[in-house]
């Protein structure tokens, strides 16, 4: 259960020392990326955010941070650039960042209408990670995941893909989600969405909101809403 309480300097130091000692005693087969090691050694932000997510549980934070370092290395997170991504998926407007929610947090938009199970899931997840990392570098703030279901049908619904997205936010970026907005869920997909909710962690369920054109402005004001969603913004995606 996340806490608003700030960790003590001692707790932060304990996590850092434990990870660095483990690194010395059990070096991973693939060395961790210098950027991640620098972030671990020189800044308290990463450790602080994890400690708060895990309710100041130092042991749990140690485990998750170590797992995160291993994943970041194996997934090549620090080496992902717009040039290394699947260019078709990067440029087709299926996953992109644009505008902010009412809390001022960036929207990471996933257009489910443009998805199909035939698309390579790893390529898509790399684009999601690219955007999360890019947005984190820009503001180091929370992000609202906006799942745009407008016009989607059964052929677009891919429970494994949604599961994988949630998994990335739950285990790799647990401190990042502000809201998970599911917008204009078609009636046909209600049953599938109920299945999705069964594997969502408790914390995700708390920030999950199903919205329609009538109530989206509770979370995203009209000027930050695309016309497609019932807002005033006539933006058309072009990667930049």
Structure overview:
The structure is a single chain. With 240 residues, the chain is α/β, with parallel strands linked by helices. The chain has 2 domains: 9-79; 87-229, Phosphatidylinositol Transfer Protein Sec14p. Helix content is 44%, strand content 12%. The chain has helices at 9-25, 34-42, 45-53, 58-75, 87-91, 121-139, 159-172, 190-198, 202-207; strands spanning 95-100, 106-111, 143-148, 177-183, 208-211. The chain has a 5-stranded mixed beta sheet. Strand 2 (106-111), helix 6 and strand 3 (143-148) form a beta-alpha-beta unit. Helix 1 (9-25) packs across helix 4 (58-75) and helix 6 runs parallel beside helix 7. The protein starts with 8 loop residues before the first helix and ends in a 29-residue tail after the last strand. The model has no long low-confidence stretch (mean pLDDT 95). InterPro entries: CRAL-TRIO_dom (IPR001251), CRAL-TRIO_dom_sf (IPR036865), CRAL/TRIO_N_dom_sf (IPR036273), ER-organelle_contact (IPR053012). Pfam families: CRAL_TRIO.
């Amino acid at each position: 259960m996340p806490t608003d309480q700030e960790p003590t300097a001692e707790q932060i130091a304990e996590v850092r020392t434990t990870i660095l000692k483990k690194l010395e005693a059990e070096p991973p087969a693939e060395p961790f990326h210098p950027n991640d090691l620098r972030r671990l050694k020189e800044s308290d932000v990463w450790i602080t955010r994890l400690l708060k997510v895990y309710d100041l549980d130092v042991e749990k934070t140690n485990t998750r941070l170590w797992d995160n370092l291993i994943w970041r290395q194996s997934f090549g997170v620090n080496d992902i650039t717009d040039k290394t991504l699947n260019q078709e998926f990067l440029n087709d407007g299926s996953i992109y960042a644009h505008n902010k929610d009412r809390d001022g947090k960036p929207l990471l938009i996933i257009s489910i209408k443009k998805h199909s199970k035939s698309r390579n899931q790893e390529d898509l997840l790399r684009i999601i990670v690219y955007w999360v990392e890019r947005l984190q570098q820009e503001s180091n703030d929370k992000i609202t995941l906006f799942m745009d279901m407008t016009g989607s049908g059964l052929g677009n619904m891919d429970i494994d893909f949604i599961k994988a997205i949630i998994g990335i936010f739950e285990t790799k970026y647990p401190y990042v989600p502000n809201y998970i907005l599911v917008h204009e869920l078609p009636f046909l997909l209600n049953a599938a969405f109920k299945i999705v909710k069964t594997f969502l962690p408790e914390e995700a369920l708390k920030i999950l909101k199903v919205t329609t054109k009538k109530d989206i402005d509770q979370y995203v004001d009209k000027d930050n809403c695309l016309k497609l969603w019932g807002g005033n913004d006539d933006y058309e995606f072009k990667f930049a």
